[in-house]
Design the sequence.
């Protein structure tokens, strides 16, 4: 069953199907972001970097946030981690609203969060054991408990034989594992990781994230990982994509696999390699439109390509005050390619003929796929030509 329209046509906001998407309950979410804006600088130099963002991280969920550099990912991460004050909008972390908290209160929130950064940020003069135990000393003075926990953690992370080594004697992967142990030491219910694999080779990068996942699942912690690293996407339950300060797609990995499966059946996408297809599927958002809603309006600038997942759509062209229907598109058909390929305004209006669901792909991602796959581009051009 489709729900009522989410906002007024012609551009309903994308609706996403996260597994926790419907529950309003704080209990179900470790993090709830809504209406979040953020700017840097003052006066004329003021630059907005986050625009009306919403994001929910369910308990025990592992979410990877991807997007080009400068898209606002790290800013969002630091706001969620109470490392900056919120200017506009709301972030609830573990049931607590961060907006309006004093610096001292923000520090308290940070104690419940485990942070992992690109550079491991270990103290060079301290051993692995000391680096991890320092984090625990903020919470307890029970030396026995600290020792047991720290040795246990380092052991499980494969560092049992390196407990008393200093960072200089450890490899990149080992240092990052110490940083993970430190982040996990106090059993935080939220772990925020910013490019945790950036300094690592392929194998140690994966190992680090797989270990992180194992711990999170065991402890019921929620993890948000900001990364450029495509090789670790499959570790996530959900992938969030940010572009130009906005969360533009938010798909569960299971949903993403469904999308890839669905796209593979379309002649347009069949030419893509399995990797590219998975990448495209990750970037797609699911949008729902009630019967009659405009999806594209003739004359407007093109921003997305659409593929019909369910229902059907009517294509109408207005000329000299007359509107005529030129095509009816159904499941598996795509539209919205013409304006993206030509840079011209939309050449027709497309509306839902009945309640319908669309997968949409943003312009930038669409361009990337075209550049990387000549058969995809050729097939698009062929269809475009046949539609004229
Ligand atoms: P675009 O111009 O980006 O937005 C309107 C879309 O309607 C257009 O891309 C095509 O995808 C689609 N469209 C326009 N004319 C036709 C047609 N004759 N048959 C099928 N689809 C069309």
Sequence:
């Amino acid at each position: 069953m489709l729900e009522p329209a989410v906002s007024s046509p012609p551009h309903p906001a994308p609706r996403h199907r996260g597994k926790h998407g419907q529950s309003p309950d704080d209990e179900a979410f470790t993090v709830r972001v809504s209406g979040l804006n953020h700017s840097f600088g003052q006066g004329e130099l003021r630059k907005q970097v986050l625009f009306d963002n919403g994001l929910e991280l369910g308990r025990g969920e592992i979410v990877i946030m991807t997007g080009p550099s400068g898209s606002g990912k790290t800013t969002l991460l630091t706001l969620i981690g109470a490392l900056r004050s919120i200017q506009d909008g709301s972030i609830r972390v573990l049931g607590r609203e961060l907006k309006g908290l004093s610096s001292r209160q923000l520090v308290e929130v940070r104690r419940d969060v485990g942070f992992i950064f690109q550079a491991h940020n270990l103290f060079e003069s301290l051993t692995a054991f000391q680096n991890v135990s320092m984090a625990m000393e903020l919470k307890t003075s029970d030396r026995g408990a600290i020792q047991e926990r720290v040795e246990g953690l380092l052991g499980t992370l494969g560092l049992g034989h390196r407990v008393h080594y200093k960072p200089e004697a450890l490899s990149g992967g080992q240092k990052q594992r110490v940083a993970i142990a430190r982040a996990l030491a106090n059993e935080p219910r939220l772990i925020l990781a910013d490019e945790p694999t950036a300094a690592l080779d392929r194998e140690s990068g994966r190992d680090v994230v797989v270990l992180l996942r194992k711990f999170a699942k065991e402890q019921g912690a929620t993890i948000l990982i900001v990364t450029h690293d495509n090789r670790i996407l499959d570790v996530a339950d959900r992938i969030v994509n940010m572009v130009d300060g906005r969360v533009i797609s938010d798909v569960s990995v299971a949903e993403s696999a469904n999308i890839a499966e669905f796209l593979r059946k379309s002649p347009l996408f069949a030419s893509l390699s399995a990797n590219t297809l998975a990448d495209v599927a990750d970037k797609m958002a699911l949008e729902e439109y009630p019967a009659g809603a405009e999806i594209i309006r003739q004359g407007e600038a093109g921003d997305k390509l659409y593929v019909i997942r369910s229902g059907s759509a009517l294509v109408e062209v207005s000329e000299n005050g007359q509107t005529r229907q030129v095509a009816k598109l159904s499941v598996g058909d795509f539209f919205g390619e013409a304006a993206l390929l030509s840079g011209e305004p939309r050449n027709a209006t497309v509306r839902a003929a009945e309640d319908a669901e669309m997968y949409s792909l943003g312009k930038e991602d669409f361009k990337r796929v075209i550049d990387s796959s000549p058969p995809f581009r050729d097939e698009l051009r062929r269809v475009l030509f046949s539609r004229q």
In short: The chain has two domains: 22-251, 253-387. The chain is about 35% helix and 30% strand.
